[in-house]
Amino acid sequence: MNPTSLHTVRRTVAPALLGLLVLATAACGSSADADDDVPLDPAGATCLEGTEDCNDTDLPIDDPDPSAGMCAPDVTDCDDTGIGSGAAGGTCLVGSDSCDDTAAPADGGDPDAVDEGAFIRAAEAVLGTNEAALPDDVRVARRGDEQFALTEDYVIGRITVDLDDTDGSGYRVVAATVELTDGPRTVELTPG
pTM of the full predicted structure? Predict the structure, then answer.
């Protein structure tokens, strides 16, 4: 066999063998199927193996009543209050700081409704504020004669301000634009 033919065979046979090897490995499955420690019933176990203070027996996993609670019997350090008590009520873990389980408004209103009046009042509140006292989430579009480049994304409730040194005491907010659902609205500082 000449060197060119050998090179061609290696370029075509090697990937095919690699593909067969991958398929053969995938067809074998994982060893978890044969592991006696892995629960195979629908409810499964919730305790990690070797956990001393965990009781995962008789959990109401298959109970069709969502208000039945999720704590195992005789467990005293479990809080399942609020389970099934609203749109999202009681779904956060106890002590969780980054979870919002606030239920939907009782009046049936939209939980994502935007209070545009509050955003406008927030924009009005920054008028006259010294540059150093501005909140971190307020963007500066203009400082005196200097224009700043801003991102073009639109964030409902975000405030962008213009600063001027009108009386020599430093840069203050003279205009604030707040991004609302129907478009931006600008409020300006009135002299006096």
Answer: 0.44
